[in-house]
């Protein structure tokens, strides 16, 4: 409940407007967000990516946003993503660009999401950038997979994220046999009804490992996107880390663990976010791990 409460606070436009109108509050929250978000602008996102690349990490970039219902705003979001892809290509930066389909059309109309996805992925592929679809709440999973499959059926370069906590996911992965490209496996960030998902548990970690194994058996590259050290250890113990698996962690979360994995010679990718919606992203990170609230307060008072 606390998780959903924080996420709904994040979505309240009146609160967001208040934060934007109040420079002191805006400044404080921006300082707290700086741990998790590279900045408000594309330049800041790319700069963070370059710093990570120089240290030997691979990178993903996301322009933050979701649930955009206005078609013009969807076009604007896709435009920003295309500009990001173009700039990365120009700079010769190899990266993955991740996005929510509901940011570029799915919340308005599936056809729009499909067209934008196709346009974006063609552009990205021409420039050697890897397009990657994020996964959203379970009410949208089927539609996201349908749009993804339509675009990926003839392009094995488009990746997709699957959530281990959803009971449907093993079947969804089986249904992707022969379609599309790399798979990112996450536990799942959304609070879901008990009928459709399982919570954080041994059973979830077990299912997560089965999904990694099944995706590898399909011949795919797999991103193990988690900060759960026990799970990462289990992947390493099975010998998968040298066979098509990379570890992927969110910017600002467990950088110590990312560094340790890299120092041990494992491929590690860091997921960098940027955009004016940094406030939404900060609330999400606190909602999913409430001790981050104390960290945010410490960041604000400059500890
Ligand atoms: P958990 O069991 O939740 O956490 C394990 C440990 O990791 C915790 O005990 C803590 O030490 C640390 N930790 C976890 N979260 C935090 C945090 N916020 N701050 C500080 N420490 C933390 N979810 C989706 O639903 N759709 C997506 O498309 C998606 N994309 C993702 C992409 C990447 C690269 C990553 C890493 C995550 C993504 N997620 C996505 C989020 C994911 O579903 C989880 O909510 C998130 O990764 C936390 O779960 P966990 O696997 O780290 O394990």
From TrEMBL:
Q: Which cofactor does it need?
A: FAD
- Identify the residues that the record assigns to the Proline dehydrogenase domain, covering every copy: 47-288
* Associated pathway: Amino-acid degradation; L-proline degradation into L-glutamate; L-glutamate from L-proline: step 1/2
* One matching Pfam family: Pro_dh
* Record's keyword annotation contains Nucleotide-binding: yes
EC number of the protein:
1.5.5.2
Domain of life where this protein originates: Bacteria
Which of UniProt's keywords are assigned here? FAD, Flavoprotein, Nucleotide-binding, Oxidoreductase, Proline metabolism
Among Gene3D superfamilies, the record links this protein to: 3.20.20.220
Q: Which reaction does it catalyse?
A: L-proline + a quinone = (S)-1-pyrroline-5-carboxylate + a quinol + H(+)
Name used for this protein in its record: proline dehydrogenase
UniProt organism field: Paenibacillus aurantiacus
């Amino acid at each position: 409940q606390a998780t959903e409460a924080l996420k709904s606070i994040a979505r309240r436009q009146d609160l967001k407007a208040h934060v934007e109108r109040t420079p002191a509050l805006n400044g404080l929250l921006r300082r707290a967000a700086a741990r998790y978000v590279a900045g408000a602008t594309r330049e800041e996102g790319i700069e963070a990516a370059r710093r990570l690349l120089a240290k030997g990490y691979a990178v993903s970039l996301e322009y933050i946003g979701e649930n955009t219902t206005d078609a013009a705003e969807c076009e604007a979001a896709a435009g920003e993503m295309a500009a990001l892809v173009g700039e990365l290509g120009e700079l010769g930066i190899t990266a993955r660009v991740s996005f929510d389909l509901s940011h570029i059309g799915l919340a308005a109309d599936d056809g729009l999401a499909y067209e934008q996805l196709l346009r974006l992925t063609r552009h990205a592929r021409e420039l050697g950038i890897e397009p990657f679809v994020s996964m959203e709440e379970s009410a949208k999973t089927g539609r996201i997979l349908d749009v993804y499959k339509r675009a990926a059926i003839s392009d094995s370069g488009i990746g997709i994220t699957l959530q281990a906590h959803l009971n449907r996911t093993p079947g969804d992965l089986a249904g992707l046999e022969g379609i599309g490209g790399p798979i990112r496996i996450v536990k799942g960030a959304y609070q879901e009804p008990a009928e459709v998902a399982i919570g954080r548990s041994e059973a979830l970690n077990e299912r997560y490992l089965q999904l990694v194994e099944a995706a590898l058996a399909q011949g795919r590259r797999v991103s193990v996107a988690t900060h759960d050290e026990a799970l990462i250890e289990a992947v390493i113990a099975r010998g998968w880390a040298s066979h098509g698996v990379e570890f992927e962690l969110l910017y600002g979360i467990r950088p110590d663990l990312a560094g340790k994995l890299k120092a041990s010679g494992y491929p590690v990718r860091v997921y960098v976010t940027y955009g004016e919606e940094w406030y939404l992203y900060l609330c999400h990170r606190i909602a999913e791990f409430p001790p981050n609230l104390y960290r945010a307060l410490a960041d604000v008072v400059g500890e």
